[in-house]
Design goal:
The protein is built from 44 helices and 2 strands. By secondary structure, it is an all-alpha fold. It has a two-stranded antiparallel sheet with strand order 1-2. α32 runs antiparallel to α33.
């Protein structure tokens, strides 16, 4: 009862605090208790605030209390104990379990961020001195919790990042579901773990909060690592987009005036962008009265001093002016005032709106002429800004262009130098610094090798400095940096560096067409003066071709690589050029390429022995290829498997001086040591040794992480391989993730039995797999399922079945599984137990199940087998509905 009261206090206080945050009646600085912000239904806002006194709302809960209560929530939501959250697969967990994890990790991240804010230290008054010891204790406890949260920050970030990949809605416990759990766990389980239990939280709603929290932690981390500010900016941008999407006007009505205007701006900016994207200036879908009334209202707010609306007002003014021009109307005074001192962004936005308003699909001659008259602009100085735009060149007639160009030339020649100087943006012609910055921007954006070369020629004519440093994201492998920077000619050095950096970036985003153009141009350039760089570029071109072919295979194009490509890969592996910088990655991917396309003959028989001895990647590739070749043969001929085993063990071993020191946290993997790995089955497990000579030297955690990654990748290529699915299930089983393990055990049975319409092959559901499924159900407190599964074993496990039927606290729907029991002995035992418990309804169901004629022991064996198969099929299909 005490725990229940604490949970009630936790739920109501956090809910109240967060509802007040939505209502805007609280200061902007979020309190420590605000872990639930924007989660609850806004329609309950006013009612709840009336019920809760404001003084209780504002106090909030301390970090130790919140930590305790959130751990209670994790426990109540059945988050597997002893397992790191980052190791759990959110998509396979029940909705309320996943939501509890996300709530805890969001609170952890927010608490870390809030704890970094400076706090004003208050001096205790005389009446507070006797409280100092308690305050100090709480402070120490808080610091201990914060220390743990900071250590786990990376894991919490990974959990939240993973949540962004889940597109389905989430569900969170309510007071009703928590009360059900407290009153009768067996009744509540079916509801709280179903897909519709508790309060529904839309994916967009939750993603908005997660983006905000990730933005906050990355922004805080930016103090020590400025590169993560970019991550923070991206998360805040996505949070703002989703916030606009989910709030709408129902929430706006309940906001304070300041928050109302902020939400209005965000909503309107989104509508403004949609207006441009959907060519509303072409379809004229928004009436003029609506457009201009919005503009007047925002201008009024701007004149009252709200500078946050300035950009919105300018953009709306431009949109309305373009609409007026297309309708032949008179341009507004506000637009003429805007053009007196336009910013560069305003002109860019104007040109963008003009372009989209006369797009090719809706362009008519009348609209083209109206737009041409509009963009000619009365002020010649403004014409300088738009004369290079493609719209200017397309819409204006040749005669109009000549007249306007002549006016611009005369205006440029008669500039009054004694007049008050204009801002640098209006300098005609532009200053050198402006030209350099514009050229540098073009250099960053261009992917045309000739254009890049021309820009660099112009830049070096203006200033002599290293332009390969213009963009900090231009990176070349460290193996090549010294060779490139040793080029004496500055222009050539910049060009080689930039072409290679842009080519590598294009490969990373799978833009192989542009990568080929850039690398080919770079190859032609370096061939003239550097044989070493020529070979470097040939190697990078080879890597590009290998990745391009592998990318095609991943998309379903399973054609074998052309012989020329295979020959070039062999040539690279056998290449020996003195003092040539070689990237390790190229060698690795060439070996992987040969393995993927079954070039086992080359790796095992044709590759020179000197390469095998000197190149560890070729050695490992040869051992893998040899082992694959020997698999179909008799066990005695599998000589290479043992050698491969020894090499992999050596890779996964750590010397005594490099062993990791304890970080104060107990690792589940280190606790169980290698026994865990031994419990995972695999397709070819029999070819490997069953014991390790030097177990202490093996980094078991590294082995398990590698195994997890390998199985996940294998299933991404072939999600219907029942043996790999069983291996994945075993991994979840030995890491105590029993619900996920059942998911994959059942999935393995599904793919090989056409959703259990056919019997599952005995080599898939062997006794070991069935016993693990029984243990999973037992640890999930689904004891009736345990009793049914005991019948599936080659020899029925009566002792386990009887013990399971005696359990009082079962979380499955007990009587609904009675119809799946076909073993008469188990049914008789069940009936006996139910009569002792005096459960009339359950007695009738058990008697009905045992009284079915097809279960009569006098029936022929084939009749009994048919009855068993029918019940197996229905039971497994029922389990699949529960765990999928």
């Amino acid at each position: 009862q005490e725990k229940k009261n604490i949970s009630l206090q936790f739920h109501m206080s956090a809910e109240a605090a967060d509802r007040e945050a939505v209502s805007g009646s609280r200061p902007c600085t979020p309190p420590q208790a605000s872990w639930f912000e924007f989660l609850l239904d806004p329609s309950l806002l006013e009612q709840h605030l009336q019920e809760q006194p404001q003084k209780n709302v504002k106090t909030g809960l301390t970090i130790p209390v919140l930590n305790m209560l959130l751990n209670e929530l994790l426990c109540a939501s059945r988050v597997p104990p002893g397992v790191k959250h980052v190791d759990l697969d959110l998509s396979t967990l029940p909705p309320t379990t996943a939501m509890a994890m996300l709530i805890y990790n969001r609170w952890a991240i927010r608490t870390i961020v809030l704890s970094s804010f400076p706090e004003k230290q208050t001096k205790p008054g005389p009446h507070q001195l006797n409280m100092m010891s308690l305050v100090q204790q709480e402070k120490e406890l808080t610091e201990n919790i914060l220390s743990v949260l900071r250590e786990q920050a990376t894991d919490s970030i990974m959990v939240l990042e993973g949540a962004l990949n889940i597109k389905k809605d989430f569900y969170v416990h309510t007071l009703r579901t928590l009360d059900l759990l407290a009153a009768d766990p067996s009744t509540a389980n079916g509801e709280t773990e179903s897909s519709t239990a508790g309060l529904r939280i839309s994916a967009d709603h939750l993603h908005c909060q997660v983006h905000y929290d990730l933005g906050g932690i990355y922004f805080q981390q930016g103090c020590s690592d400025p590169s993560v500010y970019e991550k923070a900016r991206e998360h805040f941008r996505k949070a703002r987009e989703l916030l606009t999407k989910v709030r709408h006007y129902q929430i706006i009505k309940k906001l304070s005036p300041k928050q109302y205007m902020l939400t209005f701006i965000l909503t309107f900016m989104t509508q403004l962008k949609c207006s441009i994207d959907q060519s509303n200036n072409v379809t004229f879908s928004l009436p003029n009265s609506f457009r201009h009334s919005i503009e007047l209202e925002l201008l009024h707010k701007l004149q009252q001093g709200d500078r946050a609306l300035e950009e919105v007002c300018h953009k709306l003014c431009v949109c309305n002016a373009v609409r007026d021009a297309l309708e032949g109307g008179v341009l507004s005074v506000s637009f003429h005032q805007l053009l007196l001192k336009p910013s560069k962004n305003t002109i860019s936005f104007l040109l963008e709106v003009c372009t989209r308003s006369v797009d090719k699909e809706h362009r008519s001659e009348t609209n083209k002429r109206k737009m041409a008259l509009f963009i000619k602009l009365e002020d010649v100085s403004l014409a300088f800004m738009v004369s290079s735009h493609k719209l200017f060149m397309e819409l204006l007639q040749d005669e109009e262009k000549k007249i306007l160009m002549e006016q611009m030339r005369k205006s440029s020649a008669t500039v009054n130098l004694s007049a008050k100087p204009l801002p640098s943006f209006y300098d005609i012609p532009a200053s050198a610094s402006v030209n350099i910055s514009q050229l540098e921007q073009q250099l960053i954006l261009s992917l045309d090798p000739r254009h890049i070369q021309q820009i660099l020629i112009e830049l070096h004519g203006m200033a002599e400095r290293p332009f390969w440093r213009v963009n900090s994201k231009w990176e070349v492998p460290v193996d090549y940096v010294n060779v490139i920077l040793a080029i004496k000619d500055n222009l050539t050095r910049d060009l080689v560096y930039i072409l290679m950096a842009k080519g590598l970036h294009c490969i990373s985003i799978k833009d192989f067409a542009h990568a080929r153009q850039l690398f080919t141009a770079c190859l032609e350039l370096v061939t003239e003066f550097s044989p070493k760089l020529r070979q470097v570029m040939l190697n990078e071109l080879l890597l590009m071709e290998v990745r391009g072919h592998e990318a095609g295979a991943a998309e379903g194009n399973m054609e074998r690589p052309p012989p020329d490509l295979v020959s070039r890969v062999r040539g690279y592996l056998e290449m020996r050029i003195h003092d040539l910088p070689l990237r390790q990655l190229v060698g690795e991917e060439c070996v992987v390429f040969m393995l993927n396309w079954r070039e086992n003959e080359y790796l095992t028989l044709q590759v020179p022995q000197s390469l095998v001895n000197n190149n560890p990647y070729i050695k490992l590739g040869q051992l893998i290829a040899s082992t694959c070749k020997e698999l179909p043969g008799p066990k005695e001929s599998r000589r290479t498997a043992k050698e491969l085993w020894e090499v992999v063990v050596q890779i996964c071993s750590v010397s005594s001086q490099h062993k990791r020191s304890s970080d104060g946290r107990v690792s589940l993997l280190k606790q169980r040591e290698s026994s865990m790995v031994n419990e995972v089955t695999a397709e070819h497990i029999s070819i490997w040794p069953s014991a390790l000579a030097n177990l202490q030297s093996v980094d078991v955690e590294a082995v398990v992480v590698t195994l997890k990654e390998l199985v996940n990748y294998a299933l991404s290529l072939n999600p219907n391989n029942q043996l790999w699915l069983c291996t994945q299930a075993d991994i979840y089983f030995v890491t105590n993730q029993y619900s996920a393990a059942m998911h994959y055990y059942l999935q393995a049975g599904t793919v090989c039995s056409d959703y259990f319409t056919k019997p599952v092959p005995p080599d898939v559901y062997n006794d070991q797999v069935l016993k693990r499924m029984i243990k999973c159900c037992s640890l999930l407190n689904c004891h009736t399922q345990v009793a049914v599964l005991c019948q599936f074993l080659r020899e029925v496990d009566y002792m386990t079945a009887f013990k399971a039927l005696q359990e009082q606290n079962s979380h499955d729907s007990m009587d609904s599984f009675y119809d799946y029991i076909w073993d008469v002995t188990i049914l008789e035992y069940l009936t006996c137990i139910l009569f002792k418990e005096d459960s009339i309804s359950d007695q009738h169901k058990a008697i009905k199940a045992i009284g079915q004629t097809e279960l009569n022991s006098s029936n022929p064996e084939e009749v009994l087998q048919l009855a068993a198969q029918k019940r197996k099929k229905k039971f497994l299909q029922a389990l699949a509905k529960l765990y999928f």
